Amino acid sequence: MTELLPRLFIKNHQNHDDPAVRSAYGKLAGIVGIVCNILLFAAKLIAGLVSGSVSITADAVNNLSDASGSVVTLLGFKLAEKPADKGHPYGHARMEYLSGLTVAVLILLIGLELAKTSFHKILHPSPVEFSAALVVVLDISILVKIWLAHFNRRLGSQIGSETLTATAADSRNDVLATAAVLLACVVSKLTNWAIDGYAGFLVALFILWSGVGIIKDTVDPLLGEAPNPELVRMVGREISGYDKVLGLHDLMVHDYGPGRRFASVHVEMDSREDPLVCHEIIDGIERDFLEKHNIHLVVHYDPLVMDDEELNHMRALVEEAIQGIDQRFSLHDFRMVRGPSHTNLIFDLAIPYESDGERDEILRKIDECIQFEDSKYHAVVTFDDFARNE
């Protein structure tokens, strides 16, 4: 069923990078979630009212909230389809992240309400009517939710959607909640122990813990998380493979929602190369990344002076010095400005965030090394702080 539904209802369903296909996956997941959860809500509500079980009734309300979450998912993918406009020049794809955050908040609210209801039941226990029909309803609910968790997780993995991943986690929570309710009903029947409230409270704690984790996962891309290391490596490999490219640095990736990535990078080339040829290569890189990876890439051209013997010697000396300080460090944009009394070695030094407080000591060690070569040299360093993913 998980593979059949996309084949039946999504055109070109295997083209996961196509924004239209991606949106169709999200809308399909939303519709399936709405239908399943409304049916489960109706069945559990009847079972809960007949049996007098607060945990079953709470589980029914949980399914109604899940249906609301599926509506949010459906709307999120629909709104994310809107093209760029004057007020939102980078499009509306982040609406998907907002819908995922909304689902996570709903999970927290459900957990809080279930905890409150369960605590009241602990203080004021009441008997639960046990019946074969009740067991059947709960068993069917568990099976449906297991499938929904698998369905949303599979679709979320295929299109890289945090929203569907959050929805899958919510379905997993429902499996545990309903299993706990079923267990409480069986134990109460066999032992006359009133554990309905305790079971509901434990499930509520798990739902709250899960909701906090999902909120973190959905908030990170909204705040601007670091790019995926595999994406960074892919960009580096592909750009380095172009003719006349000697190196690259200062890669920055901005995520405006799934399928809406913008990036900039500095590419190093020999200063002796024809600038028009270099410009044509850079234009080709930008076009290829948009066509192949749907990444709007802006490339800055950095010419490297390769035929200055003194500059090359000092660059090698500085590179050796910074590697001796920390092998994670790297330099770029190295140039030399000669004066009548001293020579400035000007460059950018990339260091991890955790090394930020050591700048003065790093600069002292570099100066110490280059002035051992000749006291006329002075380092003028611009520090770049970022998490190294390369």
Structure notes:
- The chain is elongated and about 95 Å long.
- Helix content is 63%, strand content 14%.
- The relative contact order is 0.09.
- The protein has 390 residues and is of the alpha/beta class.
- Strands 1-2-3 form a three-stranded mixed β-sheet, with helices on one face.
- The protein is built from eleven helices and six strands.
- Helix 3 packs antiparallel against helix 4, helix 3 packs antiparallel against helix 6 and helix 6 packs antiparallel against helix 7.
Keywords, please?
390 residues; alpha/beta; three-stranded mixed sheet; 11 helices
Approximate shape:
elongated
Rg, alpha carbons: 29 Å
Largest sheet strand order: 1-2-3
Give the biggest sheet.
3 strands, mixed
Q: Which H/E pattern describes the elements? A: HHHHHHHHEEHEHEEHE
Average pLDDT confidence is 84
Question: SS-based structural class?
Answer: alpha/beta
- Which parts are unreliable, with pLDDT below 50 for 5 consecutive residues or more? none
Helix content: 55-70%
Task: List how many beta strands DSSP finds.
Answer: 6
Give the arrangement of secondary structure elements.
Elements: H1 4-9, H2 19-51, H3 54-80, H4 95-123, H5 132-159, H6 162-191, H7 196-223, H8 229-240, E1 247-255, E2 261-270, H9 275-293, E3 295-304, H10 309-325, E4 330-338, E5 343-351, H11 359-373, E6 377-385
